[in-house]
Design brief:
There is one protein chain. With 211 residues, the chain is an all-alpha fold. The protein has a single domain, classed as CDP-alcohol phosphotransferase transmembrane (TM) domain (Four Helix Bundle (Hemerythrin (Met), subunit A)), CATH 1.20.120. The protein has seven helices and two strands. It has helices at 13-32, 37-64, 69-92, 101-123, 132-150, 159-199, 204-210; strands spanning 153-154, 157-158. Strands 1-2 form a two-stranded antiparallel ribbon. Strand 1 (153-154) and strand 2 form a beta hairpin. The chain is globular. The termini are far apart.
Length: 211
């Protein structure tokens, strides 16, 4: 009996980095379940390592041409999972002040909505480039989560307050870019269907009726 061969695509370095990011989620959750300053610093360090893998998996994929279908799935999935896990744990953390739950709902809801829209666009054969605002949102979100995880005051810096400042910016940019993406998808899908309808040949009955 022949063994099924495992595609080497699964084990490219960029895909392995995305897998590592997912594997770091339980460790991040473990550290965030402890409200102490040491565990908070460890959580921020874990998230920083995850952020580095996010940068290098995309960089290496473009550098060596290792862009794969599974990589296109794993990379955004890993990002959304670790961000959602961090936000949920920060909302439930046994320390004050906490991250407002409504902000977490809006941020995660936006990510789910955009993922759904990407699925619709892909089903229609449309390829839409990432929004510039979405990239800025991700940058501010990374800064925010690092600050919120550290939480405590060091070197006269209130990391929770700084994190909330960046989170507000990320929230506004996220909602704004989500609306823009929504409008773009609807516009392109509508245009595509309109063009397809215009190319449908008329039946003999329609031709006779016009004549």
């Amino acid at each position: 009996m022949k063994r099924a061969k495992i595609s080497p695509v699964l084990f490219t370095l960029p895909n392995q980095l995305s897998r590592l990011r997912i594997a770091l989620i339980p460790l991040l959750v473990y550290f965030l379940s402890d409200p102490g300053p040491v565990a908070s610093a460890c959580a921020a360090l874990t998230f920083f390592i995850a952020s580095l893998t996010d940068f290098f998996d995309g960089y290496l994929a473009r550098l060596y041409g290792h862009t794969t279908t599974i990589g296109k799935f794993l990379d955004p999935l890993a990002d959304k999972l670790i961000v959602a896990a961090a936000l949920i744990m920060l909302t439930a953390a046994d320390r004050t002040p906490r991250v407002p739950a409504w902000m977490v709902v809006v941020i995660i809801g936006r990510e789910l909505a955009v993922t759904g829209l990407r699925g619709i666009a892909s089903g229609e054969g449309l390829i839409l480039a990432a929004e510039e605002l979405g990239k800025y949102k991700m940058i501010f979100q990374m800064f925010a989560l690092h600050g919120l995880m550290i939480h405590y005051q060091y070197f006269l810096v209130d990391f929770h307050a700084a994190g909330m400042y960046f989170l507000w910016i990320a929230l506004i940019l996220g909602v704004w870019s989500g609306i823009e993406y929504h409008v773009k998808v609807i516009r392109q899908v509508t245009t595509k269907h309109a063009v397809s309808s215009a190319r449908v040949p008329l039946s003999p009955e329609h031709i006779e009726a016009r004549g």
